[in-house]
Amino acid sequence: MDQSSSYPRAIVHFDGDSFFASVEQAKDYRLRGKPVVTGGERGSVTSLSKEAKMLGAHRGMPMQEIRRVCPSVIVLAGDYTAYSIYAKRMYAIAKTFTTNVEEYSIDECFADITGLNESRGQTYEEIAEAIKEKLELSLGITFGVGLAPSKTLAKVASKRNKPAGFTALPKERIEEVLKDTEIYDVWGLGGAHSAHLRGLGVVTAFDFIQKPAAWLKEHGFTKPVRDTWLELQGYPSLGLSIGAHAKPQSVMVTRTFTPPSMDREYIFSQLSKNVEAACAKVRRAGLKASALSFYLKTQEFTYHGVQLDLLAAYDAPPEILKAIRKHFNEVYAEGILYRASGVTLRCLRGENAVTPDLFGAYAESQEKVGVFRAQDLVNRRYGRNTIYLGSSMQALVRSEASYRKKVSKGFVSASTDGKKSLDIPYLGTAH
Questions:
Q1: Domain for residue 184, yes or no?
Q2: Can you list the pairs that 161-166 forms with residues at least 24 positions away whose Cβ atoms lie under 8 Å?
Q3: How many domains does one find in the chain?
Q4: Residue 347 and residue 288: Cα distance in Å, rounded?
């Protein structure tokens, strides 16, 4: 069953429809068919069901606006443990057909099914639809699926008939499809690249592939853009990263504190403790964060949150806490009992991919890197929170867990395994 001319490589992209909201509906039958949004812990919508979309809700909409525009919408905090479990199930199901699966993100994966048409006696279209059917029956959620000769084209194809659609894009259909694909909808050409291309008169993906290689070089486009240009023509330039991604896309730390409190500094201290934990995870992964969100949860289970872009990319708490402190009053109100806080570090990237900012904030933060790496070593050796920020002290000292560990002899605390730890708050860098 030779399909090699249409699919020199046969790459399938699976994209979960409204993934977080769909998982919530799959977990709880009472939510099925109802307008559901997730992101209550962040203060803005991260995912929404098709029923919520029909009411006019959209991603990024503040929760206050959601409740005003769509009062019937059910707002849920994100259950990232459940989403991760569903993602792993998605990968595992795809791997029952082929081991060549890239676990691209929590709601997406690629599969290379090249050659399976011969071994299975089916067309590539039939194999892709069989995987889609098994995913939907097993997980209880729908997927947009695209089949194409390259990863970039497979992403273009999977978007065309969402939700729950399947699009096959053999080489013969590339020009037809790319003529009505806007350049800013192409994976890898978002933001600055698409704006630059539109400024040069490139409006569609088809316009882009009509440009010669010399034109790309003349206008300063680097290898990633040239790879996308080749991929859109059906020449696979991007290989699959087989297996799980070693690097997380974001890091989230949330904690409930008991008893609930109105104390402003104590509540900020809870956020500080979360930031410390999140930064430690980011450092372990060798990454830095250039954006964040944080939230407070009231005793009445309402959420208030803010999303922020940072001046530079950081893996240590001081600059992150400075940004949070600046915007803290946007989520905190006097006289209200709060019971939980959370921080998510986003837009994670490796140190080699970080571009220093014009104002020197990144260079200044690098001076503190050694301090926090030393803190990591001490905490790994002697126990979590052996050394911590002064801004986290109230949260740590007043927590029940800390009280259980304390003994009456000063700062020294003994654990059940016989180890001792010395609680020393980090109060800043001495110069």
A1: no
A2: 162/15, 162/17, 163/17, 163/18, 163/50, 164/17, 164/136, 166/125, 166/128, 166/129, 166/132
A3: 1
A4: 8
Residues for the chain: how many in total? 431
CATH number at residue 409: 3.30.1490.100
Which residues are the active-site residues?
A: 108
Alpha-carbon dihedral of residues 323, 320, 322, 274, nearest 10 degrees? 110
Backbone angles phi, psi at 362, to 5 degrees: -65, -45
Specify the pLDDT at position 366: 59
Compute the average pLDDT of residues 64-84.
88
Q: Which two structure tokens, joined as six digits, stand for 163? A: 């939700």
**Owning domain of residue 307:** 251-426
How far is residue 296's CA from residue 236's CA, in Å, rounded to a whole number?
46
Q: How far apart are CA 249 and CA 265, in angstroms?
A: 30
DSSP state of 243: B
* 30: DSSP letter: G
State pLDDT tens for residues 256-278. 887 899 999 999 999 999 999 99
Q: Which residues of 259-297 are buried (b: 16+ CB within 10 A; e: fewer)?
A: eebeeeeebbbbbbbbbbbbbbbbbeeebbbbbbbbbbb
Of residues 178, 120, 127, the one with CA closest to residue 153? 178
List pLDDT tens digits, range 277-299: 999 998 888 889 888 889 898 88
Q: Is 145 in contact with 13 (CB distance < 8 Å)? A: yes
Distance between CA atoms of residues 76 and 43, nearest Å: 11
Gap between the Cα atoms of 431 and 428, Å rounded:
10
Flag whether 364 is in a domain: yes
The three-state secondary structure class of 321 is helix
Tell me how far apart the alpha carbons of residues 214 and 336 are, in angstroms, rounded to a whole number.
Answer: 62
Let me know if residue 160 belongs to a domain: no
HSE at residue 50, side-chain half, CA atoms within 13 A, is 10
Say which amino acid occupies 361: A
Domain contains 319: yes
Q: Does 104 score more than 60 pLDDT?
A: yes
User: What is the end-to-end Cα distance of the chain in Å, rounded?
Assistant: 72
The stretch 82-105 carries a mean pLDDT of 93
Neighbours of 333 (CB within 10 A): 13
Q: In what order do the strands lie in the sheet with 251-261?
A: 251-261, 338-350, 287-298, 303-314
User: Which residue bears the tokens 């809870």?
Assistant: 270
**HSE value, Cβ hemisphere, 13 Å, CA-based, for 77:** 18
Q: Output helix, strand, coil percentages for the chain, rounded to the nearest 5.
A: 45, 25, 35
